[in-house]
Amino acid sequence: MSKPIRVVQFGVGPIGQDCIRTILAKEATGLIQLVGAIDVDPEKAGKDVTEILGRSGRSGIVVRNDADAVLSDTPADVVLHTTSSFLDTVHHQLVQCVRRGVHVVSSTEELSYPYDRHPELSTELDGLAKHNGVAIVGTGVNPGYAMDSLALIATGVCSDVRELHVERVVDAGKRRLPLQKKVGAGMTIAEFAEQKKTGRFGHIGLRESLLFVAEGLGWSLDRIEENLDPVISDRDVQTPFMTVANGSVAGIHHAIAGYVDGCAILTLDLKMYVGAREPHDAVHVDGSPPIDLVVREGIFGDTATVAALVNAIPLVMKSEPGLHTMMDLPIPRAFATTPTLQKKARAA
Amino acid sequence: MSKPIRVVQFGVGPIGQDCIRTILAKEATGLIQLVGAIDVDPEKAGKDVTEILGRSGRSGIVVRNDADAVLSDTPADVVLHTTSSFLDTVHHQLVQCVRRGVHVVSSTEELSYPYDRHPELSTELDGLAKHNGVAIVGTGVNPGYAMDSLALIATGVCSDVRELHVERVVDAGKRRLPLQKKVGAGMTIAEFAEQKKTGRFGHIGLRESLLFVAEGLGWSLDRIEENLDPVISDRDVQTPFMTVANGSVAGIHHAIAGYVDGCAILTLDLKMYVGAREPHDAVHVDGSPPIDLVVREGIFGDTATVAALVNAIPLVMKSEPGLHTMMDLPIPRAFATTPTLQKKARAA
Question: What is the rounded CA–CA span in Å between residue A268 and residue A265?
Fold first, then answer.
């Protein structure tokens, strides 16, 4: 049996904590092992990860603030990086990892298709990764899967693709509190408008998903149109964390369209709001043959993002050195999941 | 702009002819080009491919019987190989291609997951491919996509997978005549039983699909159970090619299950029959999160198989040398499809 993949968790916020939970649960397979944890928060430094997870006992993996120190004294294969959505914010962290010769899987949304917004940072990262013989990829449920990889994969059995339309409807009321806040649930319409002006509000990565699909299909778009609007609640809706009153903001409707010859041939339509009716993911391919793909009830993002990240670990390790997107990697699949262990865990 | 990928079509039967049609249609993109055609049928030798397609004019590509001669005097990048379902039958053809230093995409069903049935032939092919610096892959709509790659991809956002169940229901009445014959439509129950005994009747590749998914998930199965039964028509059904009478065979129900600890944790259930109700493809993942993926109306096989083959061409060229399965390649996607060209073609 091969040695387990050694993972350092970089970022111990809510997503990072879920990554740690998942990796620890998978350690029984002998395929993966948590070997280090980094977070800039001084409150977390010196604490064992089990303490941060609110569990008893000790894992022996202590969170430290100094990324470079952890990376230099912890032999590791991959960093699982979950600190921010924005590439300019995390760039120096990624450089630290790459310089230490470890592969990186990151939840940074802008990294899922990085060259468009950040050509210089991306070129630099790609060069550094190649120089150090490691691969980097940004992924998650969205961007990374639901509205881009899966959409592209749906065309894999099509000869002609004339148009491609992707929809995702998420009931934010069933998601964790940060997601409910992120989509503006409970805000007034005026507050929503203020937040929107920051340019860092709502779903991050829709433009990345659009450009990813366009590149995958070899399509050159004439024009891109993006719209972010509030979804206004038509009733009072209660979530475990808040009440969204009738007439206030329930969430976002975020849509983007790519045009060729005046036609919106590639559209991504995302609704994330509290109380959403008929949550689902859908890919409609107007092609030969046509494809009408639906994930009924939708892909539940809180667990799916962490899964997408952990599942990308063996795939990034198989890749050529460099900065990649998910379309360069082998097909996504669940990693380190043994039915016997899980059935036992569920029964216990 | 890069040079077009030069393709030799090996096998000019119904599927091969559709491959030629598709490649010729895509030549306008400048991304792909038909450069040669091989078929063992002496009736086809010396004929221009356009004549075989029943078209006027000449493409300049003439079918020849001598594969080695075509491969030696035609500079090519990839062979698109569509001659038989069985690896022992086509093995020498694949060896010819690989020795001439061309990549191979093949519709040979047994090649989609070749090591189980043919470990020695597969090891030899892999070695030859590596020695000659080329890659080989077997694919199509099924095996290759609907019941294996897509099923595996559906788990890409799951942490735990406890069970995975795949269904495909195909209305054979809407497919070409060879497919209707292949599934036994119109046979008596006794004739079906006779055909079944040959071991080369019905759908080829279900075992390959099962083992592909199991390997992708890292699952080791204790036991495999496979069943092939006739679907008996409950009414008279008319297709463009035949009438299936009430009480006669309408097609096949082919199912396979992989067991762990006495549980059928991985099942593939395929129904292909004339008059099938509610054709669809579905992947049900009992996992975290659960995934309930459906392709409504199903993936239409006649066009999808050819598309899957042509779309695999650029992917196999990006792969390391050797004998691969679709899980080693980057994610499938439509190739050489430009919306503008297609809209013009449709309008014309």
Answer: 10
Q: What is the CATH number of the domain that holds B26?
A: 3.40.50.720
Q: What CATH number does the domain containing A163 carry?
A: 3.30.360
Contact A292 B295 (CB under 8 A): yes
- Cβ neighbors of A201 (< 8 A, separation 6 or more) are A182, A184, A195, A228
Is A330 in Cβ contact with B329 (below 8 Å)? yes
Same domain for A75 and A133, yes or no, is yes
Which of B5, B155, B159 best tests the A interface by mutation, with the highest count of A CBs <10 A? B159
CA-to-CA distance for B218 and B244, rounded, in angstroms? 43
DSSP per position, B147-161: TTHHHHHHTTT-SEE
Q: Do A35 and A121 have their domain in common?
A: yes
- Please tell me which of the candidates A297, A310, A339 has its beta carbon nearest to residue B163: A339
Q: Do A289 and B307 touch (CB under 8 A)?
A: yes
ipTM above 0.90, yes or no: yes
Kindly state the tokens that stand for A325.
């997107």
**Shortest CA distance to A313 belongs to which of A156, A71, A127, A104?**
A104
* Owning domain of residue B318: 5-140+303-347
Is the domain of B24 the same as that of B66?
yes
Among all residues of chain A, which has the CA nearest to that of B310?
A159
For residue B25, list chain A residues with Cβ-Cβ distance below 8 A: 159
> Does residue A255 sit in the same domain as residue A154?
yes
Q: Encoding tokens for residue A208?
A: 């990345």
* pTM (global) more than 0.90: yes
Token pair, residue A202, equals 């709502």
Residues 6+ apart with CB under 8 A from A226: A206, A207, A254, A255, A256, A257
Q: How far is B189 from chain A (nearest CA, A)?
A: 33
- Same domain for A327 and A236? no
Check whether residue B29 and residue B112 sit in a common domain: yes
| Statement to judge: residues A97 and A188 lie in one domain | no
Residue type for A84, please? S
Inter-chain contacts counted by CB atoms under 8 A, chains A and B: 219
Q: What is the pLDDT along chain B (348 residues), one digit of tens a residue?
A: 579 999 999 999 999 999 999 999 999 999 999 999 999 999 999 999 999 999 998 999 999 999 999 999 999 999 999 999 999 999 999 999 999 999 999 999 999 999 999 999 999 999 999 999 999 999 999 999 999 999 999 999 999 999 999 999 999 998 888 888 889 999 999 999 999 998 888 899 999 999 999 999 999 999 999 999 999 999 999 988 889 999 999 999 999 999 999 999 999 999 999 999 999 999 999 999 999 999 999 999 989 999 999 999 999 999 999 999 999 999 999 999 988 666 666 665
Q: If you count them, how many residues does chain A have?
A: 348
Peptide bond into B143 cis (omega under 30): yes
Contacts of A195 (CB under 8 A, 6+ apart): A184, A187, A201, A202
* Cβ within 8 Å, pair A296-B292: yes
The Cα B149–Cα B151 span in angstroms is: 5
- Residue length of chain B: 348
Quickly count: other Cβ atoms within 10 Å of residue A321's Cβ: 17
Cα B147 from chain centre: 11
Which residues of chain B does A343 touch, with a Cβ-Cβ cutoff of 8 Å? Answer: 162, 261, 263
> What total of structural domains would you count in chain B?
2
What is the CA B132 to chain-centroid distance, rounded? 25
Residue B168 contacts residue B271 (beta carbons within 8 Å): yes
Dist. CA A156–CA B331, nearest whole Å: 8
CA A10/CA A19 separation, integer angstroms: 10
Residues 6+ apart with CB under 8 A from B181: none
- Asked whether residue B254 falls in the same domain as residue B312, the answer is no
